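Weekly modeling sync, notes
Attendees: S.R. (lead), two postdocs, one rotation student

Agenda item 3: backlog of single-chain predictions. S.R. asked that every request posted to the team notebook include the full sequence so nobody has to chase files. The rotation student volunteered to paste the first one in as an example of the format we agreed on. Action items at the bottom.

Example entry:
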Amino acid sequence: MKNRNFIERLGFAIAGLVAGARRERSIRTHLVFAALAALALVVLRPGPVWWALVTVVVALVVALELVNSAVETVIDRLHPERHEEMRAAKDMLAGAVLLISVAALVVALMLMIDSVQNVHWLAALIGVA
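Predicted structure, as returned to the notebook:
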């Protein structure tokens, strides 16, 4: 991939995202939650800092799940027999995904709490504002 132009490299990256989504249910699940997060941002209309924070944590969750899936694929291909070290490596990656997913959940909860405290969005939603 070295010395390829930007468009080619972008194509490879998009192909990787598509391959991950096609192969891994967990990536598809995270993408559904990403869509729900985007919908929540549109409905709740938080400030730009919230938009940035939610975007970053969602991207981190999906990116780390892609890394997890890629490494698991390589491990399974190169070392198909069960081995304690390979299992430990996979478990560590799964643990990393779990940690960032919990962090994303905390961000989502804080966004909800902040939005409920600033109920201007609710008034606009029901036509009072």
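Discussion: group reviewed the output briefly. The CA atoms of residues 16 and 129 lie 45 Å apart.
Action items: rotation student to repeat for the remaining queue; S.R. to check formatting next week.
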